Amino acid sequence: MANIQQAYGTAADATITLASLASDTNLLAGRESAEVVNTSTLALDYLVSGKITSGTSPTASRQIEVWAVGSWDGTNWPDVFDGTESTETVTSSDIKAAICRLVAVMATSATSNVAYHFGPVSIASAFGGVCPPKFVLFVVHNTAVALNATAGNHQIRLLPCYETVA
User: Fold this and answer.
1) To bridge 104 with a disulfide, which of 51, 66, 83, 166 should be the other Cys (CB 3.0-4.6 Å)?
2) Strand 155-165 vs strand 86-89: parallel, antiparallel, or unpaired?
3) Full set of structural domains in the chain with CATH
């Protein structure tokens, strides 16, 4: 008798530059990762986790948000997203709510240079149970100061998940 079992691929860092990412009061201006292409990997899901480090003298009771945005069809992207690692500003909060899927919210303190960890979170769950053919991650924050300037103090990891028959 065969059993279906969970299997994991090799974890890899998302390509996204978070060092010195500017704060945005409206949580609309942030950083888009390079696209994660699932058309050849064919993972059923990805677990996303990581750490994002606040900057010097942030304002208390603010937040860092991590979002996932899927390509409509593996080619086209909604609003300002394009699958390219870059700074983006979503057109409005109602558009953000319609096209972005929440991955994590980290409440922040006034303490400088704190590494805020999140995850693991299922990408497929964020999209109603199915992993899109391509997706990006989008990070925004409103801590009132730029994020920590050292690239190594930020990391977002993706772990592909599969099923196997044993």
Assistant:
1) 66
2) unpaired
3) 9-165 (2.60.120)
Q: In three state form, how does the secondary structure of the chain look?
A: CCCEEEEECCCEECCCCCCCCCCCCCCCEEEECCCEECCCCCCCEEEEEEEEECCCCCCCCEEEEEEEEECCCCCCCCCCCCCCCEEEECCCHHHHHHHEEEEEEEEECCCCCCEEEEEEEEHHHHCCCCCCCEEEEEEEECCCCCCCCCHHHCEEEEEEEEEEEC
Is 1's pLDDT higher than 80? no
Residue ranges in 25-132 assigned as alpha helix (H): 93-99, 123-126
- Rounded average pLDDT over 119-143: 97
Find the mean pLDDT for residues 115-134: 97
Which residue from 44, 33, 43, 22 is spatially nearest to 135, judged by alpha carbons?
33
Sign of dihedral through CA atoms 81, 39, 66, 97?
Answer: positive
Tokens for 149, please give them: 């300037």
Q: Is the pLDDT of residue 102 over 80?
A: yes
